[in-house]
Amino acid sequence: MVKKARAETLLLTIFSQIWPALIASLNSFSDGMQYGWSAPALQVLQSHNNSMHIEKDDEFWLESSFLLAGLLGLPISTYLTEAIGRRNTIHVGSVVALAAWCIIGFTNKLKYLYLGRILAGITGSMCYVATIMYLTEIARPDIRGFLTSLDHLQSTLGTLFIYSVVPFTPFYVHAVAGAVLSLIQVIIFPFFTAVTILFSTKR
After folding, report:
1. Mean pLDDT for the stretch of residues 4-8
2. HEC string of 108-172?
3. Which is more confidently placed, 21 or 76?
4. 180 three-class SS
5. Can you tell me the distance from the alpha carbon of 165 to that of 169, in angstroms, rounded to the nearest whole number?
6. CB atoms within 10 A of CB 42
7. CB-based contacts of 166, cutoff 8 Å, min separation 6
């Protein structure tokens, strides 16, 4: 009876950490989408049906701006994780990601597309650093490796998603999907946090 109770407690503890980990790593799915964005998206933007004029130099800089902004995001994320905490840093990153997807999906001006890519690069670094730290801190030692691997899994799935969706749907569809994921994280994530910390302090 005691063993059964302990097993049930263990399962409850693990379950209570998996769901917050999935929500916390949604930003990695979004970041994976942004990472793979340029390959399919630039082909669509260069099509005759698109009103935005894309030059060869723009192809280079739309990808490079994302990566360079990622470098800029590293010191920002380092500061924010210590100043406002891991959870709040993830929140800030989710809001920025939401803004980036809205800009990318609905702008018809190239300068705003650059802005969306820069914001995406910054939030990618912010969320990657903060999410790994958060998952490491709240996970039980026996499932810590599994929970932290969700970050990479979500990123890979995000890249596969962008390759699968952009060539076959209207351009705004993938951006709406990314924005919805970011919005879900912004709304739901706070409700998991207290429960997760409660169980992690009792492990």
Report:
1. 51
2. CCHHHHHHHHHHHHHHHHHHHHHHHHHHHHHCCHHHHHHHHHHHHHHHHHHHHHHHHHHHHCCCH
3. 76
4. helix
5. 6
6. 16
7. 37, 40, 41, 44, 174
The Cα–Cα gap between 121 and 71 comes to 8
For the domain 24-201, what is the CATH superfamily, name and number? MFS general substrate transporter like domains (1.20.1250.20)
Structure tokens at 19: 């769901």
Pairwise CA distance, residues 25 & 65, whole Å? 23
d(CA 50, CA 54): 10
| pLDDT confidence of residue 43 | 85
Report pTM.
0.84
Domain ranges of the chain: 24-201
